[in-house]
Amino acid sequence: MRTPGVGSKTFLKCLDFCPPEQLFSTSRDTLCKLGLGTKTIDAIKNPDWKVVEEDLLWLEQAGNHILFFTDPDYPSQLKEIPDPPPVLFARGDIDLIHFPQIAIVGSRNPSSSGIQIATDFASSLATFGFTITSGLALGIDAAGHRGALAVGGKTIAVTGTGLDRVYPATHKELATEIVANGVLISEFPPGTSAKANHFPRRNRIISGLCVGLLVVEAAKKSGSLISARMALEQNREVFAIPGSIYNPLARGCNALIKEGAKLVETTQDIMDELGHFYQPSMTQSKRTDTNTQSTLDVEQQNLLNYILYSPTSIDQLVNETSFSVENIAANLLILEIQGYIIATHGGTYTRIK
Q1: What is the dihedral of CA 101, 104, 105, 108, to 10 degrees?
Q2: Fewer Cβ close by (within 10 Å): the C or N end of the chain?
Q3: DSSP tag of 280
Q4: Is 286's pLDDT higher than 70?
Q5: Which residue, among 269, 199, 204, 272, has the nearest Cα to 240 in the 3D structure?
């Protein structure tokens, strides 16, 4: 894997020919017939054992793991994709890769309602027993991870760097929390920095590990759509949150729905397709019922009825209700604290339940 010029497909081609340890004693002519270039053959004949030793030292640290394609514990879901990574590095609870996973992906610059949606879906799906998988990126990825962790659920982050690094650096604390309550996974060895071409490769692992993938806010041309189309090619269930035709962050999701992704409005829409993996417990059902009971007084409920599921300004509320500006502001704060609305751009508010 440390040999220059050897990617996933070449590695697996060599693996079909012979075990890795036998490759080092194979003749140059035979290696050439396998399609390997001169630089690659030179590296096989004279390996850089120093970097290999560094990888093995990394492996000795508590919680670190390396899985090979030939290992019995290598995830069977991932073997189904056209170019599975021959080596997986992991930090945390490696057993989670065998649990049913739902990937949540989307924009790196989502709206506040998009973050709320991703968080809520991740929390709800985690309580049903699904592991939430994403890419540790800014925006929707982070919201998915945090939503699962908030309810004591499990989450997997597939990274585009070596696991001795965190990208983006602002997610160091989140990565630490994931190691403690989930697992970080990468096909890239320690010391590998972030590069643009690493992230599409990472995306195929995210989609390959999951049984279903949910897209929350994605532009027409985005990495999230690449993940979704990979998931479709890999015969995974793909779900998308619809949005306004005027919202550029909804166009990717709306396009996916046209292409056959399932339109999703509630967690139940996903459970209808994937419920055979997990069924809600009685405890979960009771907790959900309790959470849906209204704790609002008549005045707050009346104001809530005027707040749209799209950005609503205080001026609109003043014009449409008999409430004063002060009264509206006070009740908006209560509605926001209780999770019925979120503050959105330009001093507006959006209803979320």
Answers
A1: -130
A2: C
A3: -
A4: no
A5: 269
Question: Could you give the CA distance from residue 216 to residue 104 in angstroms, rounded to a whole number?
Answer: 7
Q: Tokens in use for 30?
A: 């035979």
pLDDT digits (tens, 9 = 90+) for 173-211: 999 999 999 999 999 999 999 999 999 899 999 999 999
Nearest Cα neighbor of 109 from 262, 230, 224 is 224
Q: What angle do CA 174, 175, 176 make, to 5 degrees?
A: 90
Length of the chain: 353
Separation CA 242–CA 1 (nearest Å)? 41
What the block records as the tokens of 6 is 């050897």
Q: Is the pLDDT of residue 281 over 50?
A: no
Distance of CA 208 to the CA centre of its chain: 12
Element (H, E) at 240: strand 237-240
Measured CA to CA in angstroms, residue 263 lies from 158, 238, 246, 254 at distances of 25, 9, 18, 9
Chain center to CA of 214:
9
- CB of 77 within 8 A of CB of 85? no
Q: Which of 265, 214, 267, 207 is nearest to 239 (CA)?
A: 214
Structure tokens at 64: 């670190």
The Cβ of residue 55 has, within 10 Å, a number of other Cβ atoms equal to 18
In contact, 342 and 336? CB cutoff 8 Å = yes
